[in-house]
Amino acid sequence: MTNALYRNARLIDPEAQTETLGWLRIENGVIAEIGDGDRAGGVDCGGLCLAPGIVDLGVKVGEPGERHKESFRTAGAAAAAGGVTTIVTRPDTTTPIDTPEVLDFVRRRGQEAAAVRFLPMAALTKARAGREMTEIGFLLDAGAVAFTDGDHVVADTKVFSRCMRYARSVGALIVAHPQDPGLSEGAAVTSGKFASLRGLPAVSPTAEKMGLERDLALVQMTGARYHADQISTASALPALARAKAEGLDVTAGVSIHHLTLNELDVADYRTFFKIKPPLRAETDRIAMIDAVRDGLIDVICSMHTPQDEESKRLPFEAAASGAVGLETLLPAALRLYHAEQLTLPVLFRAMALNPARRLGLPGGRLRVGAPADLVLFDPDVPFVLDRARLRSKSKNTPFDGQRMQGRVETTLVGGDIVYRRGAS
Questions:
Q1: DSSP for 274-328, written as a single string
Q2: What Gene3D superfamilies would the database entry show (predicted)?
Q3: Residue 118 resides in a domain
Q4: Are 115 and 418 in contact (CB under 8 A)?
Q5: Overall number of domains in the chain
Q6: Beta pairing partners, 6
Q7: What is the tens place of the pLDDT at every residue in 136-170?
Q8: Considering only CA atoms, which of 61, 93, 57 is closest in space to residue 305?
Q9: What angle (nearest 5°) sits at the alpha carbon of residue 321, between those of residues 318 and 325?
């Protein structure tokens, strides 16, 4: 563990919601002291921002089964370069993570190969088929931090309620994808004039509202701990607000793509913009930003979903959904900061503090005794994103060729430097 002093930094504190010029000292891998003003010695940060490392809830890694799309080594390198110090992985691999044996393999692989902290989620139902509950208790003991079938909605309400009741009895967190599976099946874009003009199969935003309302009704019935992986439509927000007002143990996330892009970005069938749920109207995007600012939506995530060239270079309807996001999450989020829509403390509340709190982790905060998982970044430096230079094996980013602003200089995990810009 490295001992170090970082001074002359803009300290971004998501707990206190403050931004102050100060210094931070690391000892034995944890934050030992924090102070305002300047202090002699140590690393001069030159007025750059020093914030808690990002905790990215919902990252897909291709192991086991799709290592050609993303490995733990490449995902870890991309995360470190993006200021992500903890990746929370999804179980939607070719071999689903639905048994303690598979989970143990994945956990060991991640800890050996990833440069950052790694926490696995496990499948909620066997083979993610929505018919039979996994051994939640054994998987919890084996290291699973949450349970999800990813974008496979558990359509059988009785099965889902049984899963919720058992999860409630052992204190497990369920992460769900709120969509009505019947309405959303086969959809490629959001319904509306744009979808009609392009002749693409579409889904109404109502599918998300219906899916969320069903899930929240079951939460109310069972008392389960519940996190909606992605909310993307304004019509779903009232149900979320009611659930929170009633005191249900409910949180929600939104992907960075739904905060910074809209349905028109698909343009002439650009498949790098095909994600799930599909990009929404500009009014929905603005509503998501407002919900993050107000704290109604708790978490911003990358929903990192690597896809190879062959699965993306197909007609839009047939192309695979998903975009990589580990390395672009922070610069894309800084678009909202530069547009004066969200402050840096609010962004890091949603990207670091809240996901850490939801999972019961000690990180995500600038506090004495917290792990020294930190990101030092310049929020203002401009650059043009070149997808070929991304560290992920797959290069399916919608931001290719776009002007971005803000870049990571150094990433620390437990006080150790895992990324420094310009270092080989």
A1: --SSPP--HHHHHHHHHHHHHTSS-EEE--B----HHHHSS-TTTSPP-B--TTT
A2: Metal-dependent hydrolases, Urease, subunit C, domain 1
A3: yes
A4: yes
A5: 1
A6: 24, 43
A7: 999 999 999 999 999 999 999 999 999 999 999 99
A8: 61
A9: 150
CB 82 within 8 A of CB 326: yes
Answer yes or no: are the C-beta atoms of 254 and 236 closer than 8 Å.
no
- The tokens describing 275, both together, are 């994600």
Task: Compute the distance between CA of residue 123 and CA of residue 140 in angstroms, rounded to an integer.
Answer: 11
Using one digit for the tens of pLDDT, what is the confidence trace for 32-91?
999 999 899 999 999 999 999 999 999 999 999 999 999 999 999 999 999 999 999 999
349: domain CATH number?
3.20.20.140
Neighbours of 157 (CB within 10 A): 12
* Token code pair at residue 29: 């891998």
- Rounded to whole angstroms, how far apart are CA atoms 147 and 159? 14
Per the structure block, which two tokens stand in for 55?
Answer: 């905790």
Only one residue has tokens 């909620």, namely 124
Instruction: Report yes or no on 34 lying in a domain.
Output: no
**404 falls within a domain:** no
Express each pLDDT in 59-75 by its tens digit.
999 999 999 999 999 99
Given a contact cutoff of 8 angstroms between Cβ atoms, the answer to whether 296 and 237 are in contact is: yes
Task: Answer yes or no: are the C-beta atoms of 190 and 280 closer than 8 Å.
Answer: yes
Residue 369 lies in a domain: no
Cα 172 off chain centre by: 19
Q: Token pair for residue 171?
A: 């204190």
H helix or E strand, kind and range, residue 38: none
CA proximity to 227, closest of 58, 55, 362, 87: 58
Q: Using DSSP bridges, classify how beta strands 374-384 and 299-301 pair: parallel, antiparallel or unpaired.
A: unpaired
Name residue 398's amino acid.
Answer: P
User: DSSP class of residue 351?
Assistant: I
> Are 11 and 22 in contact, with CB atoms under 8 Å apart?
yes
State the residue range of the domain holding 302.
Answer: 54-361
For 27, the token pair is 């000892």
